[in-house]
Amino acid sequence: MRMSGAPATPAAHPAPASRPTDAERVRSILAAAHSMTVVADGLRTEVRHLDGTDPMGRLHLHPAAPAAGNPAAALHDDRPAIRLEFTDIAPTPVRDRVRARVTVLGRLLTPYTDGGTESGGAESGGAPDSTCMEFAQAVLETEDGFSYIGLDELDAACPDPLAPYEAGMLTHLLDDHHDLVTLLLRLVRPLPADAIVRALPVAMDRYGITLRLEQRRSHHDVRLPFPSPLDDVEQSGAQIQALFSAARRRSHRNTLPA
């Protein structure tokens, strides 16, 4: 089945990129999700304890059936609509912690079940039930606006290899190596004209680290690219150390208060 949680095979020679595509970002948010809201038959169900397993393992997406030359049929489609809602929240205590929202829209092909996680079905060792869904579109909402992703694009995208580990990596960096976060400010060119009150890591993906620079009345994000994109989480240590080494070679002072 499509979108059963297995990543697509990357292209042999992908085009150079400095950040995830919208489809890759959606797949990464799904892969790292620990909860979602399901809206079906007029009811909202909060599904928790996904434990970082891609929810598409239980909600299988299928392409929409052709109208077969009868557009009026779509107007009388009695299959219930379903909406899956995900919120991507920064793991660090930055301002405005909501990084993105993802909505997956479609119609149910089989009755919806949450797999028994709330009632203990999955935890008791039984295989979770799956639900088939006719996919309409995925909507990614960020501070830059809305993006609409089709099934072929979503099906071909790979989750970021750091997605399941990002929260732990960022909190470890902030809690145990805050001095190194300050060091990374040396790589920010140009620095904001207004004094930086606080700098915190807000995101990390295979292409680099994003810092949120908080000023007295505003904030903005700065991406610091790795020397080369990661293919595996095991490569992250060397790439992060490369950023620290590059920062140490820079001489300008940061503007954080002492």
Give an account of the 3D structure.
With 258 residues, this protein is α+β, with helices and mostly antiparallel strands. It folds into two domains: 22-156, Pnp Oxidase, Chain A; 166-249, PNP-oxidase-like (Split barrel-like, Alpha-Beta Barrel). The protein has helices spanning 22-32, 71-75, 151-156, 166-176, 178-184, 236-249; strands spanning 35-40, 43-48, 59-62, 81-89, 98-108, 131-142, 145-149, 198-205, 208-214, 219-225. The strands form two sheets. Strands 1, 2, 3, 4, 5, 6 and 7 form a seven-stranded mixed sheet that branches. A three-stranded antiparallel sheet has the order 8-9-10. Strand 4 and strand 5 (98-108) form a beta hairpin. Helix 4 (166-176) crosses helix 5 (178-184). Residues 4-15 and 116-127 have low confidence and may be disordered.
